[in-house]
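[audit] Reproducing an earlier prediction to check determinism. Same input, same settings, fresh worker. If the C-alpha cells differ from the archived copy the diff job will pick it up downstream; this log only records the rerun itself.
[audit] input (269 residues):
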Amino acid sequence: MKKKMVSALLTATMVCGMCVVPTVGVAAADDTITVGFSQVGAESDWRTANTESMKSTFSEENGYELIFDDAQQKQENQLTAIRNFIQQEVDYILLAPVTETGWDTVLQEAKDADIPVIIVDRMVDVSDDSLYTTWIGTDSLLEGRKAAEWLNAYTTAKGIDAKDVNIVDIQGTIGSTAQIGRSKGLEEGVDNYGWNLLAQQSGEFTQAKGQEVMESMLKQYDNINVVYCENDNEAFGAIDAIEAAGKTVGSDIANGEIMVMSSIQLMQV
C-alpha cells in the first residue's frame, strides 16, 4: 500500500536544531503519494528554509505529489486548506499549525476521511490525541530553559547581580508552541534567579515586527540590558532598533551595552 512510504519516511525523520530534515525513500514509479502540506507562512528565514526542505523532500522524483499551501500566518487559511486537502482525497496531510488550539473539528474531519495527519514543528492542543498520527518537532520549553541557564551562567561568571539584569522579551506568535515554551522557559528563569522582566510583547517571529517592538520598548524603558528574542529574525530586528537609537549591542551589560539573545541559538550578540 502506497501510504506505507510516508510512514517510513517520517519514522526516519531527523530533527536538526529547529530544522525538520526528512530522510527520503524513493517510491516506485507507479506508486505516487499525494501529500497536502499546510505551512504557517514565511515569517522567518528558518520557515523559508523549512518550506524548501519539504518541497525538495516531497518531490515527484522521490515519488510524491505535494500540494502546498502558505497560510500567511492565519489559522482560518489553514482550516480551509485542510478541508481542501480532504476534498482532494490526499494520502497524508502535513500541518505546521500557527497556534496550538482550535483544531479539533477539522482534524476530526480528516480522521473521518481516513487521512492521517502529521503535525510538524509546532504542536496542537486537542481533546483527543488520536486526531493526529504523530508530531515531529523540538522541545521549545527546554530551549527557553537552556537560554535562561546560559544567561545565569554568564551573569554569574561576570559577577553581575541578578537585580541588575533588566530583560525584555520579544515573544513569538502568541499561542504557538514555540512562543508558549520559550516564554515559559524565560519566566521560570526570572523566578529562579531574580532578574527583572520589564516587558513581554509579540514580535510575531518577524524581523520587521521585532524591530518595531524593540523601538517601542526602548522608548518605555531606559535600563534595558538584555533582550530575549524567541527567534533569530526578531533578534536581527532588535539589533537594528538598538543601533538606530544610538545604543551599543554587546555583552558588557554592566557598562551600558545591551545583549541580544536568540532563544533558539543560545547565543549573545
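[audit] rerun output stored. Observation attached for the diff report: The longest helix spans residues 140-157.
[audit] end
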